Amino acid sequence: MAKKNKGGLPSAFLLDARLEEVLCQLLKIDSAEWSATKALYASGTAWSRCVIPKKKGVRIINPPSDPLKRVSRALLTQMLQGIPVHTAVHGAHPGTSIVTNARVHAGFAKAFYLLDLKDAFPSVDRARMRANLGPKLLTRVSEATDIDPQESQRLVDVLLELLLVEDVMPQGFPTSPAVLNIVLGPVDREISRLLREETVRENVTYRYTRFLDDLTITTDANEIPKSLRQSIRKVIRHNGWTIQRTKLRYYGEAPEGDEERTTKMPEVTGIIPHPDGRLTIARGRLNRFRGIIHGLLKEADARLAADAEALAKVSVQMEEDVKVFAAAGKTLDPTLSPDQFYARDWPLTTEEHDLVAGIVGFVGMVYDGDLPAIIRKPYLEAKTRFRIGMRHLSGGRGYRVALTV
Fold first, then answer.
1. How many whole angstroms separate alpha carbon 47 and alpha carbon 341?
2. What is the DSSP string of 82-125?
3. What pLDDT, in 10s, does the model give residues 130-140?
4. FRET pair for 308, CA 20 to 30 Å: which of 55, 145, 196, 358?
5. Would the CA dihedral through 319, 320, 324, 325 be positive or negative?
6. Are 8 and 41 in contact, with CB atoms under 8 Å apart?
């Protein structure tokens, strides 16, 4: 547990003026932002808590308040993104995405092993973060400043504190996906080494990628042996992670009674990689996407036609959204104020806009303009009418929204 002084401020934040100046220079923030961030921590308002229902249980999201969000983004760009991650990483890393992750396996894979880590973000506690990330941050601080080792460690303690909520890594902070990629490095390296040894021994090629907490192992052979699958799970467990058993999938040849085997066409983070190199989305999911987009288009029509009840409902929601976003200093669109964002020719709530933007962005990236007929018309209408651009997909949030429906 983080130590705090009488005012509720984490003890790590108690720096002298010179070290505070070095911290601000390190993160490329001004002293006013740092002072405001400390005030948020002292008042207990540095982040909020949102509970989002899942199919089983709930997901806790802790969005940071401004200016902590700006400080977090600075920490991400100035410190975390400079730390190397394994070549298997796709997602929350420049030049990678849910599509690049799936593309590695398209035109290659005949057998698939798909794993998902259970509660990956909150599994990164203070001890794990200090052990895995601490030394890397210390190297970064030492190389970027001229302060002595003890002072560098004090700044590392501050940076680690900025990555935690109640001693675990939160979902909702801009920094969390990048931290997850770094602390999962030992798993990435051990699985890659295991597959390389199997390749040498059996003369069979394997490929491994990870999109945040989703792991994909494929081969150009017809089978991933059960013994190898057991070894992969052992690597994950021995590194202190838990596998989500309900999402464990193996597609390939297997002996009778193999409980992991499925005959369902494998999806790599919601995308089907085909032997001919194509990427597609399952028809059932495309049908759901089409239905959602069509429903939102019809709903917008009803509201604009002055359906009194529908229009009143969305107007109240818009007003609440504007108040919440304005109070937190957040932006719905980089080019518009919250009031301007809603002063347009379509009445959608923020949640509805996030949903349709996620679907449009996800479909667009997978098909890269060559849209299937089943969704082409509603896709193009929604993209134009709801003014959806790539900015709505920053951080992969749109993909996650789309894949939950």
1. 24
2. GS---TTEESSSTT--HHHHHHTTTTT-SEEEEEEBTTTTTT-B
3. 999 999 999 99
4. 358
5. negative
6. yes
